[in-house]
Design brief:
rod-shaped, five-stranded mixed β-sheet, six-stranded mixed β-sheet, about 350 residues, 14 strands, binds magnesium ion, alpha/beta, binds guanosine-5'-triphosphate
């Protein structure tokens, strides 16, 4: 199962208590105060780690606490600091406080560290309360509790290309043609219930990642259908590939389909609406009416969007599309690095 959101509880270590003690030595009738401070509790720290691609490892392990600080001891011994707990998270994880809804951090770089729960301070031992006029202090503090938090973590898939379109447009078929991904394909809407990721090899060792998401329908931004909850997955892609079924079997007008999806994207977020887009007419092998293809081609041209015709059955246009996607995402990577 594809996991992209988890809830966990984190608890930092409590501080150790300060100690109440007095020196007792032979031949020293009244030793001074000697209670040491408690140690600080360990922190819970999120650490970005690119070896992780999902939040799956939290699913079965949703509670994490750091070690408490040790109590202070006599002879002015300070308690040991509690060990921190480090939780590896994939790059692209966004972390929220589940109770307040506040966004705490966006994990974007390898090695990035973020303390989600701070260990409690150790309490002071009685030795710290001594002064010239207060030579036998009995005050000593308890350690402070470590922070406790409920977190909601969200992973936006870091795909380079997002496939969007109506249900049944042929998105899963395309990803299975160009990558090793083998999603379920069937001749009915909403076959895909969760996003699929496929790695496509381009030239030499270069690769890019394509995300196939469930189909979108009119009113998706209002919660109709399935695809909308997955649009956030494609928010960070560099390119949207918009598949439009031009065969008669769709029972709809390609030009209308195209507009509906554009509206849904724009209603979801400006960011999505502004993304570079390819327009792809699918199932060209069974398209009888050339006007259906021309209509959508014209629309793409008017908007300055590259246009492709493909058939996953005959293979027509697939290589060309694959190369164009590679050029687009690999070139825009270079542009970002400049
Ligand atoms: N003739 C023909 N059929 C195709 C082509 N591409 C996909 N299909 C068929 O169209 C149907 C839907 O394909 P899918 O790839 O499951 O469509 P999808 O866009 O992933 O659909 P959802 O997951 O429901 O959103 C399947 O029966 C495919 O075999 C094509 O190029 N030509
Ligand atoms: Mg599908």
């Amino acid at each position: 199962m594809f996991i992209d959101e988890v809830r966990i509880r984190v608890k930092a270590g409590d501080g150790g208590n300060g100690c109440l003690a007095f020196r007792r030595e032979k031949y020293v009738p009244r030793g001074g105060p000697s209670g040491g401070d408690g140690g600080r509790g360990g922190d819970v720290v999120l650490v970005a780690n690119s070896n992780y691609n999902t939040l799956l490892h939290f699913r079965f392990n949703p509670e994490h606490s750091a070690e408490r600080g040790r109590h202070g001891e006599g002879s002015n011994r300070t308690g040991r600091t509690g060990h921190d707990v480090e939780l590896p998270v994939p790059i692209g994880t966004v972390v929220f406080d589940a109770d307040s809804g506040e966004q705490l951090v966006d994990i974007t770089e390898e090695g990035q560290r973020f303390v989600v729960a701070k260990g409690g301070r150790g309490g002071r031992g009685n030795a710290r309360f001594a002064s010239a006029t207060h030579q036998t202090p009995t005050e000593h503090e308890d350690g402070r509790p470590g922070e406790e938090r409920h977190l909601r973590m969200e992973l936006k898939l870091l795909a380079d290309v997002g496939l969007v379109g109506f249900p049944n447009a042929g998105k899963s078929t395309l990803i299975s043609r160009i990558s090793a991904a083998r999603p379920k394909i069937a001749d009915y809407p909403f076959t895909t219930l969760e996003p699929n990721l496929g790695v496509v090899s381009a030239h030499e060792h270069e690769t890019y990642v394509v995300a196939d998401i469930p189909g979108l329908i009119e009113g998706a931004h209002l919660g109709h259908g399935l695809g909308i909850q997955f649009l956030r997955h494609v928010e960070r892609t560099r390119l949207l590939v918009h598949l439009v079924d031009v065969s008669e079997s769709s029972g709809r007008e390609p030009v209308e389909d195209f507009q509906v999806i554009l509206n849904e994207l724009a209603s979801f977020s400006e960011e999505l609406a502004a993304k570079p887009m390819f327009v792809v007419a699918t199932k060209i092998d069974v398209a009888q009416d050339p006007d259906r293809v021309e209509g959508i081609r014209k629309l793409a041209e008017e908007r300055g969007l590259p246009f492709f015709e493909i058939s996953a059955v005959t293979g027509q246009g697939i290589d060309g599309l694959k190369r164009a996607m590679a050029d687009k995402v690999l070139r825009s990577t270079a542009a970002l690095e400049v």
